[in-house]
Amino acid sequence: MQRRRLKRVLIGVFATCAVLADAGAAAAQAAASNEQVVITTPPAGSAAWVADHSLGRALPDPATADAATVAAFFATLTPAQQDRLIQDYPLVVGNLDGAPLQLRYRANSVALTAERDRARAAAKDPKLDSTDRALAVSRANDCQGLLAPGRQILAFDPRGRGLVSEVFGDLADAQRVSVIVPGSDTDLGHFDRSVDPLRSPAGMARALRTQEERQAPGTRTAVVAWTGYVTPVGLGPDAVTSRLADAGAPRLVRLLNGLRLTSAPVAPPTLICHSYGTVVCGSAAPSLHGATTDMVVLGSPGMGVQDAEELGTGVHLWATRDPSDWIGSVPFLEVGGLGHGADPTGADFGAEEIASTGAEGHVGYFADGTASLHNFAAIALGSYGSVSYRTD
Question: Residue 312: helix, strand or coil by DSSP?
């Protein structure tokens, strides 16, 4: 009984602190509990894919095959065989880390088209109520936007609120690659916002790549906006536990393993993790092996650890939080599974604390002209000498 009471109190503390800091009715409404269903199983079509022996051999199981196995399998296929698998199993091919990038882009275009058409039909279905029809219209519009010419959709899964990841730049030819790991309230419907775009993963990725081109115009870069896990909604219990982060971390590790095979940057991809995304990155960190990965955390509620050493030896950690970011008002602790541990910008945490001068609020770190955006690009480019540090 005492443990349950403590949990209820801590949920109230976390939500109240955030609401008071952010202010407004929208934040108050978001503080209500809205527990999400994690997605950890392979996408639709996987069972039929595994049962398909039409090529005279087993297809790699999406649930267990590693990126190297997937890459080796696709290397044996003829163009006609590749085309057939894309048409028959677009969601499987489009989400297989290790599959050739161009095949994934094509497969996800097929999958997005099918989901758009399904949603358009639902929007006209008289058996659905007005709310469901409106949601269907929104889903169709979201899919249509991602089908625009030139877009490179690396992953798409229509289950639940929708998962989507996009590549900006030529990932196969990039010398430097970055991966944006976003926080709460990101999904298919909020992946690319036309209003206030820097609140969305796609907007963050565009801003970062533009800054990279400005700072190093001769360097080939690519940025992945990765919404590959189910994020919390609002400021309820999901936001103050690591449940969704722990489910998302293996998916992030698989992405990175796939990038090692399908792109050839001069260094491991830089992880730029925002808000609850820093909890995902903290959970994934001990599984990062090989060359050291630069990991930048911004607006972090904690990474699920007490200091940087707990992240393992494969991470070079950078951290920032601007003074106006409300996340600084949450309790940096972990009790009974609630909370995310110590403040990564704390003096004893062990991160290199970089400047974020000019950034405002919780989502202002990618704004043009900010020290934070300059620093993200510098780190992603490996230009460590031009990184500015917090001095106050």
Answer: coil
